[in-house]
Write a structure and sequence with these properties.
- By secondary structure, this protein is an alpha+beta fold.
- It has 2 domains: 11-308, Rossmann fold (3-Layer(aba) Sandwich), CATH 3.40.50.150; 404-461, Roll (Archaeosine Trna-guanine Transglycosylase, Chain: A, domain 4).
- It is 27% helix and 25% strand.
- It has helices at residues 11-21, 25-31, 49-54, 83-86, 99-104, 121-129, 143-156, 168-175, 198-203, 206-224, 246-256, 330-339, 391-396, 413-419; strands at residues 39-42, 60-64, 67-73, 90-92, 111-114, 135-139, 161-164, 179-185, 227-237, 259-262, 271-272, 289-291, 301-308, 350-353, 356-359, 372-374, 377-382, 387-389, 405-408, 424-425, 430-436, 439-447, 450-453.
- A hairpin with a 2-residue loop joins strand 2 (60-64) and strand 3.
- Helix 1 crosses helix 2 and helix 10 packs parallel to helix 11.
- The radius of gyration is 23 Å and the shape is globular.
Length: 461
């Protein structure tokens, strides 16, 4: 079923929501036929919201109340097609979907896990809140979705992210109770997306709700094992069904006895959790929050923050053993540093995988046995007699960290040609960072008055 084809809202769903919402139901039902509000979240690793707003590119609306780095979008703008998007200056995201990362509130230097991370909206948000410091593991179990996650992480340019492709069970076996904060944005029936996703309407049934609740309970049970004593576990969905929301959390609390619900801030329009909608849910679940499209600028969401009780459980001992640069490759790497970049990439954080060189997060544990997509920022690749920079390095570098730069205006013909994969005239020689209005967007190599294009084909517009 095409996502934009008109599909009626399931009558049984409406009947359920009428029972839940009472007097609020008419305005809720009307909101499902309204126009969704888009959101734009600025990448604060690269610029401030104020700096972005000063660029005056798009019709930015109001600030998202619960996300200081985000704006709503007005008008007919299409920011996803702008070169600044390819440079990682912002992420297009439903405003309600910005609430889980903000409410989890990770701190720089912490160890954080995004357990079901694709396509990467919450991962990039967590990375920005952590200021690129500490360790952020972004995991996606589905092979078809992990590539999209990896590309969004690369575009964001954060130096503290590891992308993995594992089951929650295997991660729990490997890490144990390791993380300060774990985010579980669980697969759900998608009721909160009914305003903009016709496929979610077509697929909905009470049987689907029950099946999702079972799956979510299993995921949350495993996720709890990954939280260190005293650490935090945030559970979120984009559904209104209490079977998938309060009930799932209540079962974890009953089975484990090791977690308590922490009251979340009540921003304008937020509804407290509704234990009265659930079966035998503790009253503490009123500390969760529910977001409804008739109350807030965004779609439907449920968010609950839990804290694990403090204890004396010992952390697993780690043998961090990165694969160092070999004597064969070392001269090529040193030559690249001297000729191309002006940045201190600490040797202890470098890891060689095959012929690829990565810059890992600080104090990373041993990841042997974990299916890694990227163990950090992909810096480049060792060739026969040279080192070639990788595209993620262009998005990671800050102003002044590349020795040769070709800066192009966002609306220039040269940049448009570059993004189509064409070579462009230039006076620069050797490896050159191509920037759009000062922000890295890719690599080129100047040879005899021509900049040979190294923008990746899969990113071309």
């Amino acid at each position: 079923m095409p996502a934009n084809s008109p599909v009626p809202i399931p009558p049984l769903f409406l009947e359920r929501m009428k029972n839940f919402l009472g007097d609020e139901f008419p305005v809720f039902a009307e909101s499902l036929n309204g126009i969704p509000k888009s959101g734009l979240r600025v990448n604060t690793l690269k610029l401030t919201p104020e700096q972005f707003k000063a660029l005056s590119l798009f019709s930015l609306g109001e600030n998202v109340p619960w996300c200081p780095s985000a704006f709503t979008l007005d008008g007919e703008d299409r920011p996803g097609l702008h070169p600044y998007h390819l440079a990682g200056l912002y992420y297009m995201q439903d405003p309600s979907a910005m609430s889980p990362a903000e409410l989890l509130a990770p701190q720089p230097g912490e160890r954080v896990l995004d357990l079901a991370a694709a396509p990467g909206g919450k991962t990039t948000h967590l990375a920005a809140l952590m200021k690129g410091e500490g360790l952020l593991v972004a995991n996606e179990i589905k092979n078809k979705r992990v590539g999209h996650l990896a590309q969004n992480v690369e575009r964001w340019g954060a130096g503290n992210v590891v992308v993995t492709n594992e089951s929650p069970e295997r991660l729990a076996d490997h890490f144990g109770a390791y993380f300060d904060r774990v985010l579980v944005d669980a697969p759900c029936s998608g009721e909160g997306m009914f305003r903009k996703d016709m496929g979610a309407r077509a697929d909905w049934s009470t049987e689907m709700v029950a099946g999702c609740a079972t799956r979510q309970g299993n995921i949350l049970r495993v996720a709890a094992k990954l939280v260190r004593p005293g650490g935090y576990l945030l559970y979120s969905t984009c559904t209104f069904a209490p079977e998938e929301d309060e009930n799932v959390v209540a079962r974890l609390m009953e089975e484990s006895g090791d977690f308590e619900v922490l009251p979340l801030p009540q921003f304008p329009g937020f509804m407290p959790g509704r234990p009265d909608w659930a079966e035998s849910a503790p009253q503490g679940l009123s500390g969760a929050v529910r977001l409804f499209p008739h109350r807030v600028i965004g779609e439907g969401h449920f968010v609950c923050l839990l804290q694990r009780k403090a204890g004396d459980e010992k952390e697993r001992a780690w043998d961090a053993s990165p694969v160092r640069i070999s004597k064969q490759f070392w001269p090529l790497w040193q030559a690249f540093l001297q000729e191309v970049v002006n940045v201190n990439l600490t040797g202890e954080r470098l890891r060689v995988v095959g012929e690829r060189l990565y810059y890992q997060p600080e104090n990373i544990p041993n990841l042997n046995g974990v299916h890694l997509i990227h163990p950090g920022i992909w810096i480049g690749t060792f060739k026969k007699e040279r080192f070639e920079p990788a595209h993620p390095l262009a998005l990671f570098l800050k102003p002044g960290e590349a020795r040769s730069v070709l800066n192009l205006a966002a609306d220039s013909r040269e940049l448009a040609a570059y993004l189509r994969g064409e070579s462009i005239p230039t006076e620069v020689t050797g490896w050159t960072l191509v920037t759009v209005d000062g922000f890295g967007i890719g690599w080129g190599k100047g040879v005899q008055g021509i900049l040979k294009n190294h923008f990746p084909r899969g990113w071309m517009v």
